[in-house]
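Severity: low
Component: inverse-folding endpoint
Summary: output formatting inconsistent between runs
Steps to reproduce: submit the following C-alpha cells with default settings.
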C-alpha cells in the first residue's frame, strides 16, 4: 500500500518536536480524520468557502478502510447504498464489482473520490493529534500533533471514527510471545497468507467472523479462542455484472430515497406487519426467505418485535439456532457456537461467508475460553486452563474502545480548563450528539449519541456534515464567534437518548453498542453511546433545531 506524503503547501510536518519553536498554521476549520466522514466534510467546507485542513493519523485516506486490511474485510451493507450520494457524476462513473465490496475495492473507491475532487492538497498525513486546547481569548482551537506541529482554527470538527481505538486483552505474558502478534486493526501490510502456519485468533465479533473462514482455508492449524459466541447469518455476497451495475445506476435516486426511510439508513427496513397477526406458517416462510437473502434483512428487515419483544426475539433466536445446528457437523460444537446469554440481534449481527462451515474442517478447532479460560500468553503460544496451544501467529480480533475511545485518546481541553475525557468519564454528555457543553466551536461529526454511529455510516455522515456546515455558514454570516449547547439542552438530550434505550432489546446485551469492554477497567455497566431513535427521527430532530434558530445552542 502506498503511503502518501502530506501535500498541504503550508505545512511541514515533523520538522520540529518543539511546538513553541514553530508558528502555528492557521485556518478556518480543522477536521481530525480523513476517513469517509472527514473527506466529505472537506469537500463541503471547501465548497462553502471555509479554509480547511484535515489532519490524519494514518499514512493515507480511508480511515476504517485504510487500517482494517485483514483478509475477508468487507461491507455488510450493499456497496451501492454505501457510496457517497452527493455527486451524480461520481455515482455515474464508479462501478462496484461486488454487492458487498471488499476492503481493497472500498479503499480504491475512497482514493478515487479524493483524487477526483482534488482533496488531498488540504490533508496532512502521519499526523496524529495529541492535544486540542480551546483558547477563550481568541475564540480559537489550538491543535497539537505527535510530531510537534501546531494548528489553530475557529472551528474544530472531529471525524475520528467510531471504531478506531483498538483494545487488546489484559492477558499476562502478551509481550513474551515469540511469533508474530497483532490486532486486526493494525494488520501488517506484508501479512497476506497463512500457508503452513499455526494461527490463533482471539475474538468472534464481526471482525473475527469475517477473518476466520479465510484463515481456516489456508492455515495448517487454526485455533479460535471464543469467549461468547455471536448470532451470525449469511451475507450471500455475489459479483455485480456490468449489466447489473448499469441498472443500479438508473436506480440510485430510488435507493437513496429508500435509505432515508429506514431506521438504519440501509436498504432494509422493518417489516410493517404485526408479528402476532401473521400466521405461523407465513412467518416461518418469511424467516426462511430472510435467511436466504443477501445483507442485513435477516436482522433489520424483520418484524420490529424481534428487537423489542423478548418472546418474539426468543422464537426467532430458536429459528436461527436451528440453522447453526444444520451447518455445523459436530452437535456439541454447534451448541458452543449458539449464544445462550443474549437474543438474536441484540448485539451487532456479524454477516458471514462460510463461517460455520469453517468449523467442519479438520484443521480448525474452537477453544471455548468460557470453559477453559486463557491463563497467559507464553513465548510459544497461549496457555489455557486445559493446555498450551503452540502458535506461529496470534491475531487479536478483540474489538475497540467504541465511539468515545478515539476522543479519549486526545487531550481535549475546553472552556475553563474542562477536560472532555473527565466530563465523559461516566459516559458521554452531548446535545444532539454534535456538541458538548464547555467545548465551544467543537463539533462532532460522528460522535456519541449522534445518528451516524448507529446507521449505514455514509448516509448518516452526509446528513450531519450538511447540517453542521450549514450551521457554520450561519455563524459566519452573523459574525457569531462562539457556540456551545445550553445545559438544559444537554440534559434533555440525555433523557431522550436514555429513554430510547428502553425501547429496544439492545440494552439487554453486553456489547460495544452499550459501551461494554472487558479490556478496559470499569466498562461493565451500560453507557449511553448510541441514538436508538433511528435515522429519520434523528434527522427530524436536527432539522427541528435548525428551523427554530438552532434551538438549544448558546451563541455569542
Ligand atoms: P467486537 O464486536 O467488539 O468483538 C470483539 C470480540 O473479541 C468478541 O468476540 C469478544 O468477546 C472478544 N474479546 C474481547 N476481549 C477478549 C478477551 N480479553 N478474551 C477473549 N475474548 C475477547 O469487535 P469486532 O472488531 O469484531 O467488530 C467491531 C465492529 O467493526 C463490528 O461490529 C462492525 O460494525 C465493524 P465477548 O463477546 O466480549 O465475550
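Observed output (run 2 of 3):
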Amino acid at each position: 500500500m502506498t503511503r502518501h506524503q502530506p501535500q498541504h503547501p503550508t505545512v511541514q510536518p515533523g520538522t520540529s518536536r518543539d511546538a513553541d519553536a514553530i508558528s502555528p498554521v492557521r485556518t478556518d476549520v480543522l477536521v481530525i480524520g480523513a476517513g469517509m466522514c472527514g473527506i466529505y466534510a472537506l469537500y463541503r467546507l471547501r465548497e462553502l468557502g471555509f479554509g480547511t485542513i484535515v489532519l490524519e493519523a494514518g499514512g493515507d485516506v480511508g480511515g476504517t478502510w485504510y487500517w482494517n486490511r485483514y483478509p475477508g474485510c468487507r461491507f455488510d451493507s450493499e456497496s451501492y447504498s454505501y457510496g457517497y450520494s452527493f455527486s451524480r457524476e461520481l455515482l455515474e462513473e464508479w462501478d462496484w464489482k461486488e454487492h458487498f465490496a471488499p476492503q481493497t475495492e472500498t479503499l480504491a473507491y475512497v482514493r478515487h473520490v479524493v483524487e477526483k475532487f482534488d482533496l488531498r492538497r488540504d490533508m496532512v498525513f502521519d499526523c496524529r493529534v495529541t492535544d486540542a486546547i480551546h483558547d477563550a481569548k481568541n475564540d480559537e482551537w489550538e491543535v497539537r500533533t505527535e510530531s510537534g506541529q501546531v494548528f489553530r482554527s475557529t472551528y474544530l470538527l472531529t471525524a475520528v471514527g467510531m471504531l478506531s481505538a483498538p483494545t487488546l486483552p489484559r492477558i499476562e505474558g502478551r509481550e513474551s510471545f515469540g511469533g508474530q502478534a497483532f490486532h486486526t486493526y493494525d494488520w501488517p501490510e506484508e501479512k497476506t497468507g497463512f500457508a503452513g502456519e499455526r494461527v490463533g485468533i482471539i475474538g468472534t465479533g464481526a471482525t473475527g467472523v469475517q477473518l476466520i473462514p479465510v484463515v481456516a482455508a489456508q492455515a495448517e492449524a487454526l485455533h479460535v479462542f471464543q469467549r461468547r459466541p455471536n448470532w451470525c447469518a449469511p451475507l450471500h455476497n455475489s459479483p455485480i455484472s456490468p449489466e447489473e451495475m448499469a441498472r443500479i445506476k438508473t436506480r440510485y435516486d430510488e435507493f437513496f430515497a429508500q435509505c432515508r426511510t429506514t431506521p438504519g439508513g440501509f436498504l432494509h427496513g422493518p417489516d410493517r406487519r404485526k408479528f402476532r397477526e401473521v400466521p405461523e406458517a407465513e412467518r416461518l416462510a418469511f424467516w426462511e426467505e430472510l435467511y436466504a437473502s443477501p445483507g442485513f434483512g435477516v436482522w433489520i428487515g424483520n418484524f420490529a418485535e424481534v428487537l423489542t419483544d423478548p418472546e418474539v426475539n426468543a422464537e426467532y433466536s430458536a429459528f436461527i439456532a436451528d440453522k447453526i445446528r444444520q451447518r455445523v457437523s459436530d452437535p456439541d460444537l454447534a451448541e458452543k457456537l449458539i449464544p445462550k446469554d443474549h437474543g438474536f440481534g441484540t448485539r451487532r449481527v456479524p454477516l458471514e461467508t462460510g463461517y460455520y462451515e469453517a468449523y467442519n474442517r479438520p484443521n480448525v478447532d474452537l477453544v471455548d475460553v468460557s470453559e477453559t479460560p486463557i491463563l497467559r500468553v507464553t513465548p510459544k503460544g497461549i496457555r489455557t486452563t486445559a493446555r498450551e496451544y503452540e502458535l506461529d501467529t496470534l491475531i487479536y480480533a478483540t474489538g475497540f474502545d467504541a465511539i468515545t475511545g478515539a476522543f479519549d485518546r486526545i487531550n481535549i481541553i475546553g472552556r475553563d480548563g474542562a477536560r472532555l475525557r473527565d466530563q465523559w468519564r461516566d459516559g458521554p454528555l452531548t446535545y444532539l450528539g454534535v456538541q458538548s457543553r464547555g467545548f465551544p466551536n467543537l463539533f462532532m461529526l460522528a460522535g456519541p449519541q449522534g445518528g451516524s454511529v448507529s446507521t449505514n455510516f455514509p448516509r448518516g455522515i452526509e446528513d450531519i456534515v450538511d447540517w453542521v456546515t450549514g450551521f457554520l455558514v450561519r455563524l459566519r454570516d452573523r459574525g457569531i464567534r462562539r457556540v456551545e449547547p445550553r445545559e438544559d439542552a444537554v440534559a434533555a438530550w440525555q433523557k431522550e437518548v436514555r429513554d430510547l434505550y428502553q425501547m429496544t432489546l439492545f440494552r439487554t446485551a453486553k456489547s460495544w453498542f452499550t459501551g461494554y469492554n472487558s479490556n478496559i477497567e470499569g466498562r461493565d455497566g451500560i453507557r449511553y453511546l448510541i441514538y436508538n431513535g433511528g435515522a429519520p427521527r434523528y434527522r427530524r430532530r436536527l432539522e427541528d433545531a435548525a428551523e427554530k434558530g438552532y434551538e438549544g445552542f448558546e451563541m455569542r
